[in-house]
Specification:
206 residues, mainly alpha, Tetracycline Repressor, domain 2, 2 domains, 11 helices
């Protein structure tokens, strides 16, 4: 029974990854606005209704890159004697290391689209809120607190704020800023995020 559940989860993960891979390819080849959900589904050999089981909107296929899923899974594996922030630091390093070069290229491409396409950019706040909720849930489980506990929410928001401060380009409006973010985002950003989380752990001394 457990093996069957594992097979189902792996199949779902493959389908989700295939949808995202084909979507980004089609966006690159024919443009975001010219690409339909039906075309993405057909390329991944699934129905449009299957697409919507994985992604609520076309924008979400760009924004949801599995980073939070891998972080939460890695966070759950950390030793119980680690403090919450120390566990987050270890989880970030583990999650970052789990992405292949091809996956990093997809993440960078998604990041570029999220800054260039107004519809995706407008939806990023929803994605930030969703990710804060996901991280708050993981922190709540570890600390035996409620997900809406003020301390839990503040820490989850601080973690996402750190990610944004490190990964977003200085100038969102310029091609140079977007290219800089494209070149920077990847495995090497883990050390900067870890350094920022260490400052948070130390109480953000200035």
């Amino acid at each position: 029974m457990i093996e069957q559940a594992g097979l189902r989860e792996r199949k779902k993960a493959r389908t989700r990854a295939s949808l995202r891979e084909h979507a980004l390819r089609l966006f690159r080849e024919q443009g975001y606005h010219a690409t339909t959900v039906e075309q993405i589904a057909a390329a991944a050999e699934v129905s449009p209704s299957t697409f919507f089981r994985y992604f609520t909107t076309k924008e979400d296929v760009v924004l949801q890159d599995d980073m939070d899923t891998r972080m939460v899974e890695a966070f759950a594996r950390q030793p119980p004697d680690l403090s919450p922030i120390a566990a987050v630091r270890a989880a970030v390093r583990e999650a970052w290391d789990s992405f292949t070069p091809a996956e990093w290229e997809q993440i960078r491409e998604g990041g570029r689209l999220s800054m260039q396409v107004p519809e995706i950019r407008a939806r990023t706040m929803n994605e930030f809120a969703r990710t804060i909720n996901v991280i708050a849930g993981a922190l709540a489980s570890r600390t035996a607190r409620a997900p809406d506990d003020l301390r839990v929410r503040v820490l989850a928001g601080a973690v996402i704020g750190i990610m944004m401060s490190i990964c977003l380009p200085d100038n969102l409006e310029s091609d140079e800023g977007l290219q800089s973010a494209h070149d920077w985002l990847g495995p090497k950003t883990a050390s900067s995020i870890d350094e920022a989380l260490a400052l948070l752990e130390a109480g953000l001394p200035l």
